[in-house]
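Form P-L/3: holo structure prediction, ligand coenzyme A.
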Amino acid sequence: MTVKIEAFLLTERLVLEPVRELHARELFAPLQDARIFTYMPEDPPGTPEALAIRYHLWERRVSPDGNERWLNWVVRLATTGEAIGLLQATVRAEAPAIVAYLLFPAHWGRGYAREGLSRVLRLLFEEYGVVCAAALVDTRNARSIALLRALGFRLAQTVRQADFYKGRVSDEHRFQLPRAVWLRR
Ligand SMILES: CC(C)(COP(=O)(O)OP(=O)(O)OC[C@H]1O[C@@H](n2cnc3c(N)ncnc32)[C@H](O)[C@@H]1OP(=O)(O)O)[C@@H](O)C(=O)NCCC(=O)NCCS
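OUTPUT (holo model):
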């Protein structure tokens, strides 16, 4: 792979900037909104320092065993530079690349997730040679499911009791988008 891993990605309304440790201070406060985590088996970050440790790890851009590329971006409005969310992709050698995303709630309902994720998918399919993208979604997460369907993802599998978190059990949809389907859009 010869892709420049630290590259910024641009769309009509967004700038996607690779996440760095220094972003923890800026993102800690907006990540405290519990609505973001309603359907995710995690809590808002505990402290800016804990978030900085996580982002420091992400800055490696590769898993310790070398088998995964960790791509992640702060999503910014091109007009103001305001951070509005995060996008991620885990590129694996022999398996679908897994995408993940979140927007801060004030920015839901404007098509920003669709626009940003679409740019990331283009990078994965056209520059990383990924043959299939996948996403794992709580079956109740209607907004996320609508986003995936709008981009051409199809339901591949539903796993009952896929997650146990804080005494809550959740079912999970596994969505997939093969490159061939993406190219036919
Ligand atoms: C999942 C999530 C990113 C979806 O955000 P979103 O803003 O609903 O997603 P989209 O970018 O696809 O926007 C679609 C909405 O924007 C509207 N929209 C406005 N302008 C638009 C445009 N130019 N293009 C496309 N859609 C547009 C659409 O009509 C749609 O509105 P609706 O929700 O009222 O039907 C968001 O809900 C979120 O961050 N949730 C918490 C984290 C999470 O659950 N992540 C996923 C874990 S699997």
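COMMENT: Residues 36, 39-40, 101-103, 108-114, 137, 141, 143-144, 147, 150 surround coenzyme A (CB under 6 Å).
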